Protein 1
Amino acid sequence: MRILITGATSGIGKQLALDYLAEGHEVWTIGRNQQVLDELAELGFNAVKIDLSNRAEALEWFNTLTSIDLAILNAGTCEYIDYPDFDSALIQRVMRANVESMAISIEGILPALRKGINPHLVGVGSSAAYVPLPRAEAYGASKAAVEYLINTLRLALFRENIAVSLVCPGFVKTPLTDKNDFPMPFQVSVQEASRAIRKGIAKRKPEIHFPRRFTYLLKILSLLPHSLWTHVAQRMMRNGQKP
């Protein structure tokens, strides 16, 4: 396959790239860390530095692609709000990195996917979108937007036979989550995350979520009335815990 992965210079994206290359696929790695991209190029990747928030720059490069069979849109970031200050600039940064950059990537990659073999578009969201979580106003909202965007694209692209999948991980040990200052239950390694994602992609699953014991719990909680979940979360916060 001809595979393109954004956010491929660290974490889940990098591990996916390494695993797909090891399987013999042709892989494009997109990122902003030039040092890592140079290392990936030496390994045999088509490594490209692009600022995906720059629409003109990104679309100009995407236009150079001939065909892509699988596009994994993984680029993103995470920042948490620390009260009592509500930082709207933080929300702008997270939305730009997680939502606007993905929209630009979708616009850029669709023409190449339409020329691919059994084309498949994959967007990486988060299980954080399942329920409201304290301090995750920006991150959770951005991933909820990604979820809606990807699920709607699945309807829009159905007639073109382009498969669309949403990835909703729990906590994965990456340089991004290493910055977290709270417990991360059921955390998995990037190797485990890559296996789960590649397995789901191979089966062309509409939603790929893991680890199941964590994501199913959040899915169950999401079925509760909002007032009940709010009450539970507030009690946990009063007790010094984090949902």
Protein 2
Amino acid sequence: MSDFFSELSWRGLLYQQTEGAAAHFAAGSVSAYCGFDPTAPSLHVGNMVPIMGLVHLQRAGHRPLALVGGGTGMIGDPSGKASERQLRGVEEIDANVAGIRAQLERFLDFSGSHGAQLVDNGEWLRSLRAIDFMRDVGKHFTVNLMMQKDSVKSRLEGGISYTEFSYMLLQAYDFLELNRRYGVSAQIGGSDQWGNITAGTELIRRTVQKEAHGVTLPLVTTSSGTKFGKTEAGAVWLDAARTSPYQFYQFWVNADDADAVKFLKMFTLVGHEETEALAAALAAAPHERAVQRRLAAEVTGLVHGASAATLAERVSKVIFDRRIDARELPADVFQTLVTEIPCARFAGEGAINVLEALERAFALSRTAARKLMQQGAISVNGEKLAAEALEIDPAGAAHGRWFLLRKGARDVAVVEMEG
């Protein structure tokens, strides 16, 4: 195996490969591509599996091409879909392509001899003539063969339009066009792309008589059987406007112990020895969540940058550490907190009524708030309030503006003095 295959293998990222693929990669530098579907304005955490495949490809000395589907996105890949996709307009697709392009640039190095390249298949697909496509591409595929592919077979009973049925040929044509233009000889993708990938290798073999290969990566599942990348709030996006860096960090730091080591291997660049050490630490002291904390910091740093990861980590610590002194926290932590957790705002600089703050922050009744006070369950800036306390002294505000109001062990809010 080449270093690329060895790296994918130990990280649990290698699913399938065409015959001779390992030897092809071991023989020298290979140009390989992976396609990304622009039917949404942002990629999500599920897309990070093929993204990391491109990252490891480049680190092994090969040249990655990230293909955004400005052409194929107007059709939509039927793979993994139970019903027909809604067709998107050109303007929407172009806007999505621009957003995805910017996200991919965070992961790959576009400089040097093995510099990555971003390509839009709209360059050749949007001007493609139907008659030419049918003669030059369609003649190399039988309907019988196409119906054997999983992406088509799974849809036959419920129905599949000719539009989506033909998607496989468009992706195969992409592979051929990238081979002609950029010398691309391999494609990587999720395991659901196997049929589309092998269609491309076959088209290249038949039309230009060249060797081409495919490598697939696994579709990720959680140990509980739930769909990876989905939360109660919906998909976990790479776009900070859709999933904030803090929410993104929380998704990873809350990974189940049974998934944490697997995710660390798949979604970070942490090496083998350190991964084993972290796995041992998790086994010995699971309550410390060493793997999850490292996982969250690494992936958030990859996607949003080191400073955003550090801030998300600090904000997370504030929420879950009852003993933290809020007055020592930097202002940017509070500025993030007020967007992520409940915030009760008070105008002016006078003393703040404790019961009113509890009502606003946690939507409590005055009776429920008073009962919690009597139980000693309320703290401000890490200090438990006495049962008879009536006000919060504004002199204790962090940065002259904020307090952390905590109810019990888990519920926390910000009290903010405005003006």
Protein 3
Amino acid sequence: MKIYHHIDEFEPLEYAVATTGTFDGVHVGHRTILNKLTETAKNNKGESVLFTFHPHPRMVLQPDLDLSLINSLEEKAELLKECGLDHLIIHPFTKEFSRTSSLEFVRNILVKSIGVKKLVIGYDHHFGRNREGSFEHLKEFGPVYGFDVEEIPAQDVNEVKVSSTKIRKALLEGEIKIANDYLTRPYRLTGFVVKGDQLGRKINFPTANIKLDDEKKLIPKDGAYAVQVRIDNGKDLKIGMCNIGYRPTVKGKTKTIEVHLLDFKEEIYGSKLTLFFADRLRNEIKFNSLEELKSQLKKDEVKCRSILA
């Protein structure tokens, strides 16, 4: 898959089969569209193209919304590559770009810049200034500019019953298994190990404190989770217990993400960790003492090993 960070970097194709959208999460609904896209491109001896944006349009148009994302840009690109996409165009989204009319978008970007011959879109997809563009617009533009348009049927989308909004809601409520079902894979966070207070060592549960590599990445609800962990780019996954929250037992003042790796004793400061969330263990609890906390962590470990067995 080739990646472009501006439409100007892209050379029009002889036969482009394209789609457009934010695709945050690259969830099972998105994959319905992408499967159709790549299949259509293959059947017509063309090339598949996704035109997407960065940052997310709602971050530009609704800055007070404080939107968090399911995927970092790096994650999204990796997932799209796995879907068999040929070309990924990540165009800068600005307020100026948001004023592009649906006609300008079709004529200048899809037709002139990409060379679209077939357009595959999700049910009820809208685009262009004030989301004025629709399937009906595209059906009108198609004969004029020489492309066909195919809309994924409503029943195919409704069967999936999933959206990026639903996934964000599930994660914020700690419903990891629901989010994972929608995503068809474990939700993940990636960051680097930084120095912490090292209080976990006092109770034989040392933790690696994680500083996320993307500040816009959505953090699941505070609590304890069973996770699998990739260290740097290693192939083997470790197992561990992740805690997200303010550590009320030790009067923590800032939110932290920390993970205790089971059956692992190496120093990993500065390493890049990717946490794959399997299930939620419990809410974050304020204990009366470190001994009570230690007792609970032993119970968490048993539950964690059972989940990840």
Protein 4
Amino acid sequence: MEPVLHLDHVSKVYSNGRGAKNITFTVNRGEVVGLLGPNGSGKTTIMKAVTGLCQPTSGKITVFGADAVDQREEALAKVGTLIEQPALYENLTAWDHLVMAGRYYPNVDQARMEKVLEIVGLAPYKKERCGKFSLGMKQRMGLALALLSEPELMILDEPTNGLDIEATVEIREIIIRLAREKGVTFLVASHLASEIEKMCSKVMVLYEGEMLSCDSKEEALRLNPSMEDYFLAKVRDKKGSVVL
């Protein structure tokens, strides 16, 4: 197993006491790893620390062998991100967005732009303004932008949040297909246990800034009928078997 991302006792605590505390885990190449927890559990904080949007209070983050703080440019060179909702200009087309983003990557050409639109299913709509896109189409546009530089690691924060059933399935299938066919590694945060169960090969439970467990999906479901039951079992263990 080749490590792509490693967090070693990473903490990021804000002035209000919230954040993430003493987080340690490894993501290996080709895995789809899920961060499962409610809002405020520390999922987004971890992703922001990995992508350089905030600096850890303590601990070390290594991405492709490079320190995410001291060697940030090297560490993030092969990383694509979609944290929270994509920032799109309503009056620009899907193609316009890719052209603008492509200026930051020396190896991105027109063929690559066409390819990412095909991957996310937006090729027929490349000349449409993003202001006319549905929420699901906007999420797929965000994925297209994150995939533009051919990243080997994708960091996705709640990629299916707020989407209808059809759009949720579309996003999930894109993630699974890229992992299986292209070997892209994913770290995906969600508060939806069912989504983590359907798309991820490994799951970490986060609760109130702490990581309660890190198991393969098979191990998580070995003694639990569903990922939801697995999550509840871990939280109840932490709370001393208090019924939720």
